[in-house]
Write a structure and sequence with these properties.
Elements lengths: L1 E6 L2 E4 L4 E9 L6 E7 L6 E7 L4 E3 L7 E7 L2 E6 L8 E8 L14 E2 L3 E6 L1
Parallel strand pairs: 2-11
Antiparallel strand pairs: 1-3, 3-8, 4-5, 4-9, 5-6, 7-8, 9-10, 9-11
Length: 123
């Protein structure tokens, strides 16, 4: 299996920046892609950004131009978040998948998850 652990969350003011890091271990070479999702209380988990093994990235419309996903090496995934807004406040999760047909809009297509890290943006 694959184990994922997020770090880097915290509290910032509107317009600030944070960098989230996900450290992966285990059978990471079996995965097809990695991603960041986020969730607020009472809502479903939403995809933020994905990156395929060959480097192709995809972003949710709400974060395009502000967030950047990168794969620093096979075991480290990052999310650089700039110009943060209060609506970015959420628990952010790192995810990986070995499933064909994965996509950013369906969290059921991701089979490995971290425990999450809180991001809070104040106005």
């Amino acid at each position: 299996g694959v184990r994922l652990a997020e770090s880097g969350g915290g509290s910032v003011q509107t317009g600030g920046s944070l960098r989230l890091v996900c450290t992966a271990s285990g059978s990471i070479d079996s995965t097809l892609a990695m991603a960041w999702f986020r969730q607020t209380p009472g809502k479903e988990r939403d995809g933020v950004a994905t990156i395929q093994n060959e480097g192709k990235t995809r972003y949710a419309e709400a974060v395009k131009g502000r967030f950047t996903i990168s794969r620093d090496n096979m075991n480290t995934l990052s999310l650089q978040m700039n110009n943060l807004k209060p609506e970015d406040t959420a628990v952010y999760y790192c995810a990986a998948t070995t499933l064909l047909g994965w996509n950013l809009t369906n969290d059921l297509t991701w089979n490995y998850w971290g425990e999450g890290t809180q991001v809070a943006v104040s106005s």
